[in-house]
Design brief:
Radius of gyration of chain A: 25 Å
CATH architecture of the largest domain in chain B: 3-Layer(bba) Sandwich
Shape of chain B: globular
CATH superfamily of the largest domain in chain A: Chloramphenicol acetyltransferase-like domain
Distance between the termini of chain B: 74 Å
Largest interface: A-B, 19 and 16 residues
CATH class of the largest domain in chain A: Alpha Beta
Shape of chain A: globular
Helix content of chain A: 25-40%
Strand content of chain A: 15-25%
Distance between the termini of chain A: 62 Å
Helix content of chain B: 25-40%
Radius of gyration of chain B: 24 Å
Oligomer: heterodimer
CATH topology of the largest domain in chain A: Chloramphenicol Acetyltransferase
Structural class of chain A: alpha+beta
CATH architecture of the largest domain in chain A: 2-Layer Sandwich
Number of domains of chain A: 3
Number of strands of chain A: 19
Structural class of chain B: alpha/beta
CATH topology of the largest domain in chain B: FAD/NAD(P)-binding domain
Largest sheet of chain A: 7 strands, mixed
């Protein structure tokens, strides 16, 4: 029996994804749960596992294809023994991925000009119900410009509303997508064109939007972590026996959460009206991870309830899975504050960009030994110094609060007792 | 001195399209004047079309159903026909509906006016009723003038033995013999009414088949029934002459490629189609354009060549159906009121309310073949349906045409009792872009005839279990 493998609903409003790797070819024998396809969506990379065992008869997709839910991926000749293992559940859905009703926001590139009034647009081949077609006329939206997020790519009323929101944001000058001049660089020398990954393109758009819509201020500071370093190394040695790697990051996370608890406006978001601040009573920290596909920010939940060791374990897990494209879209959402650490690489200070809807982000640079004058003992001593930066949304946080945050953060790091 | 009137919206014709347009415009805040020739509202549809014919077809169906019980072991006596009571039953229904519309007009403060509307210019109408004339001006006008029965040359229109759909519905008497000229929807419906009342009915159709617009396979079960019910059905034939004989009967000359012969009938019914009522409106005085067949040209916003004159319904072309007119009427009213309406229906269902009923919506197989549109079909015979067997509807069938690539519903056709009601599911499927599995995975109640829609989709997919189709792939399509 030949079984069609189709792209399942990936959940989280993801309706399309780009094929970044096809791991099997015609004639290959695949086992249940073997990875058959790697996809990059707007939000994450993910591997699609086989839910059947059999031989690949036909590969219907290629590298770089933009594929949508329900699209045929492979035809698999089922092997007899496992033919009955075929489940009724949608093929290849990763556990825990529940379809969400709210569609994802459209990227700006998918927008085009609205319907001109007086123009009769034939909608005969557009997949939208009469009610949606009427709404499109009321809103003056050309349905051809919209990609549906409903089942089988049906255009829903929500799709129209989302589209309008983005149009309004553009009209208000919120997001400006500059057209880049088409320049032939090869006239000055040899060039090579490399396609941006989908993650990179989407991240780029989001960063641009954040940069243009949030008034950023960055506060620089340093912390003396000489004592903490001693404490960490002791802990690291013990934890190594349990195969847990203890870096500075979990300490930084603990310290951040302590400050967030004391200064709740840093753990907040502006609501849609821009008139209210939503203060969150949970502490989920995003941790920027560099992967070969681009920047991803997995979220570690309830940092206030976790120990340094538990955080170390969690960080090892998410960063490994981020690099192996095994993160679920759920794990990239719900953050309240982000830490971006370049400590392992170098630099003194940098200005991170706030990750909306959060209102602040901590950037950590490389620690170094420094000669510090101790005025009490009247001597110069070598101290291990951590430089860091805090960027914040000036709509929500004022400069005094920003400086108070970095001072308090440094003070916590300098007091080892805080971590015992 | 001539009276003068002004209204923001003037609607000419109070049929199902006209009153819908008037009421919608009034609901949207316009001052509306609704003009009709008839003293009552509702137009041809209510007064001498859809509604009275359905009242009579209901009687015809019950008569037939009662007699068909004989084979099942229940026998009634021969029906006794009280023509006056039947006429009354039909008239009461019509009057009740007339009053309902008049009440709704009053409640909305839509002013109604009886009279013939005649354009004087692009901005002025003269309405005459008896010796009174009123000059009417408007911001916007909606022409919903409808259509009337077309006539054939060589037929004495004024002869009381020559009926149109309008006079046939009056059932002045039950003639012994009736010749129906025209084997279309109206001719067959009325033919069946008279046959049920005891008349020997014959039909002459010019084209090679009855109901030319419908797929042959859907018409066949009806044809089968009519062959038993009617005296004679002649296709590819035409009536060239009708003469009143001395004995009081009508002598009719019927010609075909093969022969020409004469027959006599008590009455004849001319049902050869309908023509738009454009000539009554004096449109020459306006710059409203018409096509060669006399239909007013209107765009998807129902706008004519004059920007503030709109036209809807039969007067702008086929299909001449009340439900099309109603939707167009609302579009016109909404466009006038500045709403972004447009007529963008993807399918308009057609129904023949005979016994059995024939209904179709969207693409027909005939159109698909003529236009070279690729399709695949799933069809289900009602003989395989338990309910079909139980109610003796084994001649019925349901079919759905699908796009072979997208599997989306292109068209749907049904024949059998209740087809006209069940067709709406298919029309909805077309409007929503439903594909085969959307229909087959929708749970249909058992045992019903509506199940045959889901079964047809399953036949297309190969997943049907209420039929065995040898050689057909049983996977999902």
């Amino acid at each position: 029996m030949i079984k069609d493998i189709i792209l399942p609903d990936l959940g989280e409003g993801i309706d399309a994804a780009e094929v970044s790797e096809v791991t099997v070819s015609v004639g290959d024998f695949i086992n249940l749960d073997d990875t058959i396809l790697v996809l990059e969506s707007e939000k994450a990379s993910m591997e699609i596992p086989a839910d059947v065992t059999g031989t690949v008869q036909e590969v219907a997709v290629q590298l770089g294809d933009e594929i949508t839910t329900g699209q045929l991926l492979f035809k698999i000749e089922l092997s007899l023994a496992t033919g009955e293992m075929e489940k009724m559940a949608p093929v290849g859905v990763e556990p825990g991925l529940e379809p969400e009703k709210r569609p994802s926001r459209k990227s700006i590139n998918e927008l085009s000009s609205p319907l001109h009034l007086g123009e009769t647009t034939s909608t005969g081949d557009i997949f939208a119900s009469p009610g949606v077609r009427r709404l499109s006329r009321e809103l003056g939206v050309n349905l051809r410009a919209i990609k549906g997020t409903g089942p089988k790519s049906r255009i829903t009323k929500n799709d129209l509303h989302d589209y309008i929101k983005i149009r309004l944001a553009i009209a208000a000058g919120g997001i400006v997508n500059h057209r880049r001049p088409d320049v032939d660089y090869s006239q000055w020398g040899a060039v090579e064109v490399q396609k941006l990954t989908k993650v990179k393109r989407i991240t780029g758009q989001r960063l641009q939007q954040a940069w243009q819509t949030i008034p950023h201020v960055t506060q620089f500071d340093t912390a003396d972590i000489t004592d903490l370093d001693v404490y960490r190394k002791a802990m690291k040695k013990n934890a190594a026996e349990e195969n847990i790697k203890v870096t500075f990051l979990p300490f930084l996370m603990k310290a951040v959460v302590r400050v967030l608890e004391e200064m709740p406006q840093f753990n907040s978001s502006l609501d849609h009206s821009g008139e209210n601040l939503v203060l969150k009573h949970y502490y989920h920290l995003g941790v920027a991870v560099d992967t070969p596909q681009g920047l991803t920010v997995p979220v570690v939940q309830d940092v206030n309830q976790k120990s340094v060791l538990e955080l170390s374990e969690a960080l090892m897990d998410v960063s490994t899975r981020a690099r192996n494209k095994k993160l679920k879209p759920d794990e990239l959402k719900g953050g309240t504050f982000t830490i971006s650490s370049l400590g392992g690489i170098g630099g003194t200070h940098f200005t991170p960009i706030v990750n909306p809807p959060e209102v602040a982000i901590l950037g950590v640079s490389r620690s170094h030994w420094q000669a510090v004058y101790d005025s009490v003992a009247d001597q110069i001593t070598p101290r291990y110094i951590l430089p860091f930066s805090l960027s914040y949304d000036h709509q929500v946080i004022d400069g005094a609060a920003g400086a108070a945050f970095t001072s308090r953060f440094a003070a916590i790091l300098e007091d080892v007792e805080q971590f015992k | 001195m001539e009276a003068k009137k002004f209204a923001q919206v003037v609607v000419i014709g109070a049929g199902p399209g006209g009153y819908a347009a008037a009421f919608r415009a009034a609901d949207l805040g316009k001052k509306v004047l609704l003009i009709d020739r008839d003293p009552t509202l509702g137009g041809v549809c209510l007064n001498r079309g859809c509604i009275p014919s359905k009242a009579l077809l209901h009687i015809a169906k019950v008569i037939h159903d009662a007699s068909s019980l004989a084979a099942l072991g229940v026998t009634f006596g021969d029906p006794k026909i009280d023509i006056e009571a039947i006429r009354n039953y039909k008239n009461v229904i019509v009057t009740k509906m007339n009053d309902g519309i008049a009440q709704m007009a009053r409640a909305r403060q839509v002013e109604t006016m009886q009279g013939n509307a005649s354009f004087q210019s692009d901005s002025e109408i003269r309405v005459t009723c008896g010796s009174d004339t009123v000059k009417v001006t408007f911001d916007n006008c909606i022409i919903a003038g409808g259509s009337s029965s077309a006539m054939l040359p060589g037929i004495p229109v004024d002869d009381p033995g020559v009926l149109t759909s309008r006079t046939a519905l009056d059932i002045a008497d039950i003639p012994q013999t009736l010749l129906v000229i025209g084997g279309g929807i109206i001719g067959l419906e009325l033919g069946q009414v008279y046959a049920a009342l005891g008349t020997q009915v014959s039909v002459v159709e010019f084209l090679p088949h009855l109901i030319p617009g419908a797929d042959r396979d859907l018409v066949k079960p009806l044809e089968h029934r009519l062959k038993k019910q009617f005296q004679e059905i002649r296709v590819s034939s035409k009536v060239t002459e009708v003469k009143r004989k001395k004995q009081g009967r009508l002598q009719v000359t019927i010609e075909s490629d093969l022969d020409s012969h004469q027959e006599t009938y008590d009455k004849i019914l001319v049902a050869v189609g309908r023509k738009p009522n454009t000539e009554l409106l004096n449109l020459e005085k306006t710059t409203v354009t018409m096509d060669q067949q006399g239909f007013i040209t209107a765009d998807a916003y129902q706008r004519t060549s004059v920007p503030n004159i709109f036209a809807i319904g039969d007067i702008i072309g086929n299909p001449m159906l009340a439900h099309k007119a109603t939707h167009e009427g609302k579009v016109a009213a909404e466009v006038i009121c500045g709403l972004p309406a447009v007529f963008d229906a993807r399918a308009i269902p057609s129904v023949i309310y005979t016994h059995p009923e024939v209904a179709w919506s969207g693409l027909t197989e005939m159109e698909a073949q003529e236009q070279g549109i690729a399709y695949e079909k799933g069809e289900f015979p009602w003989a395989a349906s338990g309910r079909g067997q139980a109610v003796g509807a084994i001649q019925g069938k349901t079919k759905i045409l699908f796009n072979p690539n997208t599997k989306k519903t292109l068209g749907i056709g049904m024949v059998g009792p209740g087809a006209g009601d069940m067709i709406s599911e298919g029309t909805l499927a077309i409007e929503l872009g439903a594909d085969a599995e959307d229909i087959s995975l929708t749970v249909h109640p058992h045992p019903t005839l509506s199940e045959t829609l889901a079964f047809s989709a399953e036949v297309f997919e190969g997943t049907v279990t209420d039929l065995y189709l040898p050689g057909k792939e049983k996977g999902f399509k």
